[in-house]
Amino acid sequence: MLRRPGRLTPPLATGTSLHVNWQVSPEVSPMEYFRVSTEYRPPFTVMRVWGELDIAVEAEFRTHVEEAMEQQPERLLFDLSELRFMDSSGVRVILDAYRRLGMGERVVVCGLSPRLQRAFYLMGVTGRMGGMTTYPSLDSALISAHH
Predict the structure, then answer these.
(1) Is 25 inside a domain boundary?
(2) How does pLDDT run across 32-60, given as a tens digit for each residue?
(3) For 93, which of 20, 116, 117, 144 is 20 to 30 Å away at the CA?
């Protein structure tokens, strides 16, 4: 199992001067930070992602996406509304799925935080020049798909 580096504890104060003594606590499993579920909500296969999606869990996330794609979904929707953090490795996995499924409306994203909206825009994943379709929420994506 992949391991995430331990957490740092705050510095300890002694007397009038501050002595910094960073200590690393025991390793914490990435499962405490990251989770994925997959369900079918016509016309989408919905992949909900929770926690922190970074390089430490990229392989696990990629495995989940590959398993979903093996089912040959009509459309794939990434619900990122419960994501606290995502680095470029998570974006790369989503972009790989987008490219493999034809770079059209087959892969969409919902629930982007303002920070992730900006990052996706700046990376060219979404925006005026085309790119991946985004929705504010899972409900809005489902409603839009049925109209």
Answers:
(1) no
(2) 589 999 999 989 999 999 999 999 999 99
(3) 144
